[in-house]
Amino acid sequence: MKLKVTTLDNAESGEIELADEVFGVAVRRDILARVVNWQLAKRRAGTHKTKSRGEVTGTSKKAYRQKGTGRARRGNLKTNIMRSGGTVHGPTPRDHSHDLTKKFRQLGLKTALSAKAADGKLAVLDAAKVDSHKTGELAKRLQALGWGNALIIDGPEMDELFQRAVRNLSGIDVLPQQGANVYDILRRDQLVLTRNAVEALEARLK
């Protein structure tokens, strides 16, 4: 698969050959769904908690005598049916993460890259480097390229000025190649890879 390489000034900079085993994999939604669920499950804090009847403040003394009052029988006031009582079967702190094999995670990343390529939402940038950290200048360049909602993935080393310039742009995310993941690729409309990112991803996923 061949794609044209563009620059930040919206000029062509040759072509690049993309490996079919990384960017030409059959797109399977079930694989993408499983990997996204795995990522989001790992992010969950799992700190949700409610108090049981043994943890709420109060006394376990019988409220009043069993018989003779004309009222219902009542013992511990910390039961779940009482006001400010404990919760039954409520959530407790837990780890929501689950295992997913390395091969499956790699397949998920290949599938996400291939899905963007198949939809025509994959672009290759010559280099993500700028001479100024001014956000306005970079915003005009990206607007001319039609990248209003995009994820830009660079090589292992990222240009500091580019990172500072893109930091305040809503709808634009930037990641080094080692941070490339399925969820961030799918949540943005356009995927932009630099030449360095393509080389690094192919070496990582082949």
SS-derived structural category: alpha/beta
Number of strands: 6
Low-confidence stretches: none
Proportion of residues in helical segments: 25-40%
Number of domains: 2
Principal-axes geometry comes out as elongated
Q: What gyration radius follows from the Cα positions, in whole Å? A: 27 Å
Average pLDDT taken over every residue: 95
CATH architectural name of the largest domain: 3-Layer(aba) Sandwich
Which strand order do you get reading across the main beta sheet?
2-1-3-6-4-5
Q: Strand percentage, roughly?
A: 5-15%
- Say what the CATH topology of the largest domain is: Ribosomal Protein L4, Chain: A
CATH superfamily of the largest domain: Ribosomal protein L4/L1
Q: What's the CATH first level of the largest domain? A: Alpha Beta
How far apart lie the N and C ends? 15 Å
Q: Element order, helices and strands?
A: EEHHHEHEHEHEH
Secondary structure tally, helices: 7
The oligomeric state of the chains shown is single chain
Sheet with the most strands, sense and barrel status: 6 strands, mixed
